[in-house]
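Sequence in, structure out.
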Amino acid sequence: EVRVGNWQQLAEPARAVRTAVFIEEQGIARDEEWDALDADAVHAVVLNRLGMPVGTGRLLREPQADTARIGRMAVDRTLRGSGVGRQVIDALEQAARARGDQRIVLSAQRSAEGFYQRLGYQPVGEPYDEVGIAHIGMARLL
């Protein structure tokens, strides 16, 4: 099941996935993970058959007109490659289209670059370090 909503509706399941992936698995500091942008974002959460959250991501507005930003994409380690990430991206892209966005940008961990390329995202610019992890900017027209 994929749920799309605001932080007030989806904070608990989104926080559970992001804590497991970013803080516990990847060692990102808690104060680096949580920010005020969650309150204004559209969130997507994928729940398994038992109702447990297994994937999440958020959609923000960029300052450029008609551009959205996907961020905080996280999928439970045991389910990577199973289609959960695609479900999150599909839900966020649908939300972006519904509000009139025409382009999506994101900051991909280099280890996930191939995943995003298979979904139509192209690298933009040079690789860079973010919270100690190699990233690359990527973009796609809707």
